Fold:
Amino acid sequence: MMRYEAMTSFMVMDIVREASRYPNAVHFEIGQPDLQPSPNVCEAFYQAIASHRFSYTESFGLYELREKISHHYLCTYNVKIAPERILLTPGSSGAFLIAYALALKSNGKLGLTDPSYPCYKNFAHFLNIQPIAFNVDKSEAYQLHPDQLRTQEIDALQISSPANPTGNIYTSERLQSLNQYCIEHGISFISDELYHGLVYDGLANTALEFNDNAYVINGFSKYFCMPGARLGWIIVPEYQIRSAEVIAQNLFICPPTLSQYAALFAFDYEYLANVRVEFAKRRDFLYQELSNIFEVENKPQGAFYLWANVSKYCDDSQKFAHKMLQEIQVASAPGIDFGNNQTDKYLRFAYTRNIEEMADGVLRIKRWL
Amino acid sequence: MMRYEAMTSFMVMDIVREASRYPNAVHFEIGQPDLQPSPNVCEAFYQAIASHRFSYTESFGLYELREKISHHYLCTYNVKIAPERILLTPGSSGAFLIAYALALKSNGKLGLTDPSYPCYKNFAHFLNIQPIAFNVDKSEAYQLHPDQLRTQEIDALQISSPANPTGNIYTSERLQSLNQYCIEHGISFISDELYHGLVYDGLANTALEFNDNAYVINGFSKYFCMPGARLGWIIVPEYQIRSAEVIAQNLFICPPTLSQYAALFAFDYEYLANVRVEFAKRRDFLYQELSNIFEVENKPQGAFYLWANVSKYCDDSQKFAHKMLQEIQVASAPGIDFGNNQTDKYLRFAYTRNIEEMADGVLRIKRWL
Structure:
């Protein structure tokens, strides 16, 4: 079998395209912020062009930016990460290719939760890695429990917190116990922390607080509002720095240069605080509204997604989503994009548009049902 | 074995870093143009920022840009390629990941020439594909002959023309006969055409003239002088469009957005003609000068590299390159980065700096030897 035959379409991207055909669509499907990056970032983009920053950079990315990220870990989590361990990548997507290649052999086994970000399993298929699903549900607030790992052997574990599509955040105790289990059993820990910063209740810990050899992935696409810049990063264990570099040199040459120069100004915490406040308001609005229509089992604590059980209206949420798009032009992501664990009962709603637009969408849904 | 253990460092990137420590170094190692992109491209970058183009695009990239590339094939090669078959990628590097995944199973066999671009074999190792080397040398002007393919079974063939590191161009007859062989034997043909446009003698044909199912890779990093923009493209066979999209959605989400908007203005043929004239002058200068010092077996016809046999001065060109960098601060790429076929006798010199700087380098070499 060709590896792409095992891969599934990233449905959200297909739905984004379908929804774009309706000029009056309300967009709950889109997994990117509609807010602009900090004005300092925009200014830095202009400056970078004026300075003719059109060449390759080092494969690892600008050292100065890696220092800024290092400082971000110190002031956000109080963990010291040498800039040498931080590798800039073409989007956090590029970071997953590196993490999986560093942590897993061909035919190796990658544990992931069901539901989870659909590309995890597809990165695995692309690299001839076997994805092993562990079901999570409302009973544990969508957090994996270490005991579940005893049921199947794995070589690496992939989790995300805040999680896509559920918006849950791992408690520090749970994140610690999972890391402890992985350390004891020689399992690589891969932590997708792309939605850090977009945290409305509680705290998001970095896996590095509990496991210095965790692979931590983050980027500028969500909290920093620069999705099109295609710039992410990965923190690798000390002993993997050179191997990570060899992979990055060959696979990417380097991440986009202008984006790197602009991202030097992305750690504008005052601006970012406003981004968080705006998304917190939207979360509160959409949670309240959709809880009255569907069953929302857990209030999302972070990211910008809400996982709604729509099974009282249908047997098949994908058909429901299609009908909703065609009949009232409200776009959402069908649950089956995110796994097989009862996902045909769910839709993912992204609160990536302003409250006025969301209110219009909610009203259409209410009238329609 | 971990897949990265089979991969080799992309040495040129290491040498670029080493050479950057010497402020007075003469740079013959760098595989990117020092010329700026067209002023229209720079202006388009400004406009894209002013218009807040910070979101994702479709995974395939902007349709308007795919149309421009389609038009480029029509007016450059007189071949009609539907925009739907053109997929924009994060650098041409991203295009190789797609081509190899579409053409080769895990454990499949990829034929490539020795010497050739070092990342080909490393992309293969990354994807558990077996690289099969076919030696090429001056006797056939560094072109692979179809008869060589009879000696080993392969599933796909990767060639580049103009070639890195030798600067040779496949004649239209040879490119046709290779494609014919591959079509007859069910071998996928992958054509790296990244240096098209930088052609000083003869003509570079696209493989699509001879094989409608060839995977053709190109990008904006060389001729278009936008290496840091990380934007490439791949043309896939009609029947592979959807599979290519599934891979791109999952692996990349989309290519850098600002780069796409800027590249809409990259087909500025008047400006590009000047780029070609400048590199042609540099080629003539460096070929004449280095032919008097080393043995340059074939005058390069394209790209911006010159493959020099330095064996009359040393047994090991890598040691020679290191000594040359340390003692007279002249940087070059050691041949062994490009394969195992007598490559320890060669250095690759890039003519990516102006003639004045190159003349300084040549003078240093002459005095030193």
Chain B has two domains: 3-37+269-368, 39-263. The mean pLDDT of chain B is 97. Chain B touches chain A through 65 residues (CB under 8 Å).
